[in-house]
Design goal:
Blueprint: E1 10-12, E2 23-27, E3 33-37, E4 53-55, E5 58-60, E6 87-94, E7 102-109, E8 114-120, E9 127-132, E10 137-139, E11 150-153, E12 156-161, E13 169-174, E14 180-186, E15 193-200, E16 213-217, E17 230-234, E18 236-240, E19 246-247, E20 261-265, E21 273-276, E22 289-292, E23 295-302, E24 305-309, E25 322-325, E26 333-336, E27 348-352, E28 355-358, E29 365-366, E30 380-384, E31 392-395, E32 406-411, E33 414-417, E34 436-441, H1 463-468, H2 475-480, H3 482-485
Antiparallel strand pairs: 1-2, 2-3, 4-5, 6-15, 7-14, 8-13, 8-15, 9-10, 9-14, 11-12, 12-13, 16-18, 17-20, 18-19, 21-23, 22-25, 23-24, 26-28, 27-30, 28-29, 31-33, 32-34
Protein name: PLAC domain-containing protein
GO molecular function: metalloendopeptidase activity
GO cellular component, one term: extracellular region
Length: about 500
């Protein structure tokens, strides 16, 4: 299951500051833990050194006879329901020192000892150590100091503590399965080490005969479940034959110990009940989403077996399986309109668009300052519609002919213009059109009065040439060669 969008490898976290029956997990390789569930699986120990168990997320007391809610307690000898007569207290204060420092033996702890406490009298630079009878160090050996923590030694858990402002200590419930030796690594004057533990009594009866011990079955425990199949257990304990008192198991022959008994009980199915799954992730992070969960009517028919029933079999009101979530309004967001056309029409240019700060439902427009600047979409981008056409020569209209009658000249303007109509100097001269050309204007016929006769002037001999070279359109030649030019 992801946690805040990431996946981790988890291991149980049982440190301080957490509810004992919540499922607290430590992310491997990271320095954080989190509560993944409000309740661990029923039957999980509340604490490592306690018989109490978690049920429905709450810590329930378990007696030393392993019966839920039982008032049975261990005595000082760790005998369930005992009277404390099977052990005796060993207690003392060790305050010897070595002038040059080093390891010194404090006390030997016999096999089977319980409620072991070793503690410095005052804070010092010395260190409590622990080893076996065969000189194998378990804690703080070979001039190497271990971190304070729990050590599993000799069949029990030793808790080694070394606070910065309190004396060092070593504690265990026991019973131990071997002889242990408490040592001290001296680095300064020993201010004293107090020790206390309870040692089993090796009792004998009257006379020279040793008291007998034998195995006995306790009464059946209560059923572990009220329905769908639980179990009852019949534990085996060691008892004295003379007074029938319960003693430590080490007094009886372990090879002849009979097995504990177990039998099923309360095998009838449980009443139908609603199974309610976890809520899904919300469909939206804001503006109201929907989350769902599985709701089924089930009935437990065995320790690990359930059946699904019709909803009508469950008598209580059916829990909801869908609800709204994240109903808070979303923050304003940027909304873009369509891009404009690229301008200019050719060559590199830009496209523009309008960007508005709108409400999440797009019904309201806000000042731009209410939207985040760092994710504002661009309002202008570069564009190109291809290369522009080259400049070209643009000729104007021809002007009037310079001659009102006959041949003359006429002019026009020729400009080099870009595609936008701006003057340019990049038109090739070889393609430049003419700015001047020859022109001819028609001459009106010279009116002849009724009294005058149209004739060639006698002294003019070139009238045939005037006609040949088409000079009749000129007023002078037309007058001098009237007859020749008549009709032409």
């Amino acid at each position: 299951m992801p946690f805040r969008g990431k996946y981790y490898n988890w291991k149980p976290y049982t440190g301080g500051g957490v509810k004992p029956c919540a499922l607290n997990c430590l992310a491997e390789g990271y320095n954080f833990y989190t509560e993944r569930s409000p309740a661990v699986i029923d039957g999980t120990r509340c604490q490592a050194d306690s018989l109490d168990i978690c049920i429905n997320g709450e810590c329930k007391h378990v007696g030393c006879d392993n019966i839920l809610g039982s008032d049975a307690k261990e005595d000082r000898c760790r005998v369930c329901g005992g009277d404390g007569s099977t052990c005796e207290v060993t207690e003392g204060l060790f305050n010897d020192s070595l002038p040059r420092g080093g390891y010194m033996e404090v006390v030997q702890i016999p096999k089977g000892s319980v409620h072991i406490e070793v503690r410095e009298v005052a804070v010092s630079k010395n260190y409590i150590a622990l080893k076996s009878e065969g000189d194998d160090y378990y804690i703080n050996g070979a001039w190497t100091i271990d971190w304070p923590r729990k050590f599993d030694i000799a069949g029990t858990a030793f808790h080694y503590k070394r606070p910065t402002d309190e004396p060092e200590s070593l504690e265990a419930l026991g019973a131990t399965t071997e002889i242990l030796v408490v040592m001290v690594l001296l680095q300064e004057q020993n201010l004293g080490i107090h020790y206390k533990f309870n040692v089993p009594i090796q009792r004998t009866g009257s006379g020279d005969n040793e008291v007998g011990f034998s195995w006995h079955h306790l009464p059946w425990s209560e059923c572990s479940a009220t329905c769908a199949g639980g179990s009852q257990k019949q534990e085996v304990v060691c008892k004295r034959l003379d007074d029938n008192s319960v003693v430590q198991n080490s007094y009886c022959d372990s090879d002849s110990k009979p097995p504990g008994n177990q039998r099923p009980c309360n095998t009838e199915p449980c009443p139908p009940e609603w199974f309610i799954g976890d809520w899904s992730e919300c469909g939206k992070t804001c503006d109201g989403g929907i989350r769902t969960r599985t709701v089924l009517c089930i009935r437990k028919i065995g320790p690990a077996e359930e059946e699904t029933l019709q909803d009508s079999h469950c008598l209580t009101h059916r829990p909801i399986e869908q609800e709204s979530c994240n109903n808070q309004s979303c923050p304003p967001q940027w909304v873009t309109l369509d891009w404009s056309e690229c301008t200019p029409k050719c060559g590199p240019g830009f496209k523009h668009r309008i960007v508005l700060c709108k409400s999440s439902d797009l019904t309201k427009t806000f000042p731009p300052a209410l939207c985040s600047d760092h994710n504002k979409p661009p309002v202008r981008i570069r564009c190109s519609l291809g290369r522009c056409p080259p400049p070209r020569w643009i000729p104007g209209e021809w002007g009037q002919c310079s001659a009102q009658c006959g041949l003359g000249q006429q002019m026009r303007t020729v400009q080099c213009l870009s595609y936008t109509g701006q003057p340019s100097t990049e038109c090739p001269d070889s393609l430049r059109p003419n700015t001047m050309q020859q022109c001819e204007s028609k001459c009106d016929a010279t009116p002849i009065s009724s009294g005058d006769e149209c004739k060639d002037v006698n002294k003019v001999a070139y009238c045939p040439l005037v006609l040949k070279f088409k000079f009749c359109s000129r007023a002078y030649f037309r007058q001098m060669c009237c007859k020749t030019c008549q009709g032409h």
